[in-house]
Amino acid sequence: MKTLQNLIITGWGYHDYACAAAVALRAFPDAAVLGVSKNRLPECLAEIADQENVPSQILIIGVSLSGDPDRTAAACRALKAKGVTPVWYSAIEWSDGFFTRFKGALTVKVDESQSLHRLVAADLKVTDEMRNLDAVLSEKPNAQGKNLQLLLAATSCHYRNYQDADAYAAAIRFLASPKPELPDNLKRIVDGYTKYHAREWVGVSEATRKLREDFKTMGRNGDCRVLILGETGTGKETAALLIHGHSPRRQQPFIPFNCADLSPQLLEDRLFGHVKGSYTGAIDSTEGAFEQADGGTLFLDEIGELSPVAQAGLLRVLQEGSLCRIGSTKEVSVNVRVLAATHRDLPAMVRGNTFREDLLHRLCTYILPLPPLRARADDIPAIADAHWRALGETTRLTPAQHAVLATDSWPGNVRELCNILERAHLRHESDFGMLIAEQRQWLAGETPARHSAGTPAPKEGSKNDSLDFMMRQHIREVVARHHGNLAHATQALGIARNTVKKYLAPSS
Asked: SS3 sequence, 262-281?
């Protein structure tokens, strides 16, 4: 077998992909490692095919070919013309339509009964024991396994947000040939991932693509103030964190501050600090949020809730770059980038004399509106998958579950979607439709009523009485029991595959 020069893998969330890539590196220690998503795969293969010297062997491990199958197939045929036929390893079902597209241009290795890393190990004849992989993939990983899972999650998140592919490749190499200590560059990435709660903007929609570009644009200018607008639950703090992460201030503090959580008096104290003895109970001098964020970024959430006095104090800091702690006349200079967010209509508040016009203009050098989840419904499967993995679930969401989630308007946006998934995780519930129905009944002031089968009791004369509804529910349950495998579910149901797909689609 020729020496492998390029290994294309994905570990975006499913650790088995990373473990399979680590097994391949055991077989070919000198291979290059590249992490890609399914949407990036066609472009990546095309770029490799355009090179004068192509790799002698390409393994595609755990990346779906569905991003743009025609373009992917064309790139594979171009590579074959140059003497290299990519090998695709997958532990998911091989779609019938793909045979025609890729015939002769791709070597396919699929085995749904095995985990992906065992499939790769068997094919590449890697027989040496890799205990780290078992630790990573265990349902109850030990401390070492948890640390390695954290490393993979941090570096894949770092790649998705900052396009640093080298870090993820380094993590795969560390997994394949573990060292006693992480190198410093990987430690910094893990520390940042842990510190900022693994926030990232997930999705594949055009709106999400544009937002990621906006985060970069606004991040590059480390002083530009940004006003983030959006409904509750749209991810305003996540957006602020990503702007900070793209900025020259990213190694400095990021301090989130919720302006709605405190009384006007306490709010000023928390923002600007106080000196010892300035009021009863002030037994020590204390820094406020501005001083804590010095050199970095201060995120002021719910800026529309600021009292008039606090608005005046904030305006002064933004104008002068200095503040006075409560009880002091001494000026304290601060170098802070302010990012603010609100779900309120600030221009209307200015017209109503409840928000200062001069402060509004100081805050909005750049205005960033965040779309509600219903306006980027294409992102729902990716968001759901990411949160499901973050909950520690090892099973994957099924097409039927994705379809159910995609039918709701999600008035609470991403936060509400995540709440439903957490409820499903805690209750070991696979019927997401029932959980959503419960949520809607509760928000409407009704008492959710569940019958013995665990689904909402249909109202008399409702469409839930229809045969179509009952067939849809039954088919989704069977597909869920077969973990989304349509071939197995179709066989169990005794109906045509196209019929199953029809009933998995959202109902009108």
From this structure: CCHHHHHHHHHCECCCCCCC
Report which secondary-structure segment, H or E, holds 503: helix 497-504
Q: What are the distances in angstroms from CA 449 to CA 85, 162, 458? A: 57, 46, 9
Q: Which residues contact 357 (CB under 8 A, 6 or more apart)?
A: 350
E strand map for 264-357:
297-301, 322-324, 331-333, 337-342
φ, ψ of residue 73 to 5 degrees: the values are: -65, -40
Distance between CA atoms of 168 and 166, rounded to whole angstroms?
A: 6
Do 269 and 285 meet the contact criterion of CB atoms below 8 Å apart?
no
More confident residue, 235 or 165: 235
- Whether residue 53 contacts residue 149, with contact meaning beta carbons closer than 8 Å, is answered with no
Give, in degrees to the nearest 5, the angle at Cα 188 between 185 and 192: 145
Task: Tell me the C-alpha distance between 444 and 459, whole Å.
Answer: 15
Structure tokens at 391: 């909950």
What pLDDT, in 10s, does the model give residues 85-131?
999 998 776 666 777 788 888 998 887 666 888 889 989 998 877 76
CB neighbour class for 422 (10 Å; exposed up to 12, middle 13-18, buried from 19): middle
User: Has this prediction a pTM greater than 0.70?
Assistant: no
Q: Give the side-chain half-sphere CA count within 13 A for 391.
A: 22
Amino acid letter, residue 285: S
User: How many other C-beta atoms lie within 10 A of the C-beta of residue 474?
Assistant: 12
Q: Is 252 strand, coil or helix?
A: coil
DSSP letter at 396 equals P
Compute the distance between CA of residue 48 and CA of residue 4 in angstroms, rounded to an integer. 14
Determine contact, residues 370/228, Cβ cutoff 8 Å.
yes
In the numeric block, which tokens belong to residue 275? 């000196």
What domains sit in the chain, N to C, each tagged with a CATH number? 6-195 (no CATH), 206-369 (3.40.50.300), 373-504 (no CATH)
